[in-house]
TrEMBL record:
Keywords: Hydrolase, Metal-binding, Zinc. GO terms for molecular function: deaminase activity; hydrolase activity, acting on carbon-nitrogen (but not peptide) bonds, in cyclic amidines; metal ion binding. SUPFAM superfamilies: Metallo-dependent hydrolases. It holds the Pfam family A_deaminase. Residues 9-27 have a biased composition (Low complexity). Its EC number is 3.5.4.40. It comes from the Bacteria. This is Aminodeoxyfutalosine deaminase. Residues 1-27 are annotated as: Disordered.
Amino acid sequence: MPAMPEPHPSAASSTDAPAAAPNPARATTALPDAVPHRYEAFVAGLPKAELHVHHVGSASPRIVAELAARHPKAGVPADEAKLAEYFTFTDFAHFITVYLSVVDLIRDAEDVRTLTYGVAENMHAQGIRYAELTVTPYSHIHRGIPGEAFMEAIEDARLAAERDLGLVLRWCFDISGESGIPAADVTLDAATRLAPAGLVSFGLGGPEIGVGRPQFKPHFDAARATGLHSVPHAGETTGPETIWDALNSLGAERIGHGTSATRDPDLLAHLAERQIPLEVCPTSNIATRAVATLAEHPLADMVAAGCLVTVNSDDPPMFATDLNREYAVAADLLDLDEHGIAALAKNAVTASFAPEDVKARLTAEIDDHLTTWTSTSAGDRATR
Ligand SMILES: [Zn+2]
């Protein structure tokens, strides 16, 4: 999922949209209810890194309830049971309404802290040890939260999450592409003049069709000149040419989604040869209809071509998923056992911009989990 408040790219306008506008409700109910999972416990206990997940898009009903109670006039239910209903999307327009109503609940720095720390708690509960959270400063600055106060709030939450939960958070600031150059200017200013300590990368979300990647080249050049990594969304709802644009114009070091890469063998070979990671979000792709069905998801083709793939959740509560579920989906699509799942988790560490000591620690924790799990399982078998 891209930056909001505009609709998802695949439904951003009637001209952009595939034959039918995405319908998260229908699409998510089309997913298997019980993702297979003999490996559920293994995945739940697996230390994980997540690289493609959005800040507001991670607001769970629990967090929204807290914000709604704080701002009762906003008309959003403050009761978690009612919110579960509120989060059941009847159509795409409803999804956008809900998303925007969540954005509108974030009115001051305290709300930003509540959202960010709440998201960190949810990550911690899933066994996530490191995450690069995509934040869209423009959405909040544009609504009147001063940039400095916003930065202070997310940094407070980041430091608290590391101290209390052992979760290492880093930021990706993304341009909401649909808001054009003014949004890009604000985002660049946030990423340079106001750069918080945890910022590692610069991104681009929003609709792809009609929002050419190359127009943001000056912003990416300037962000990269300060040492930020380039991680635009590309090829989610458009073809491989957008991914080429992201690589050639924006210096992309990872590709957000990159779903259409498999349509261009030269591109796929290029991504594989350079080991440019792909941030794959299977359930999101189905929910937004970037991909029609899980059976048609290109993940296996990406892996077969030798690409470095990572698995991510994008906007988890909005798509009724979480990172553990995405690992289960990927394990199913790729027919992985515990060793394969652990290798997938290590891909995310490799592809991350985490400090080297965090990478080493997380890799060792993944290995430990696998060793403990396989030896315990062997022990179980031996006693049977
Ligand atoms: Zn996204």
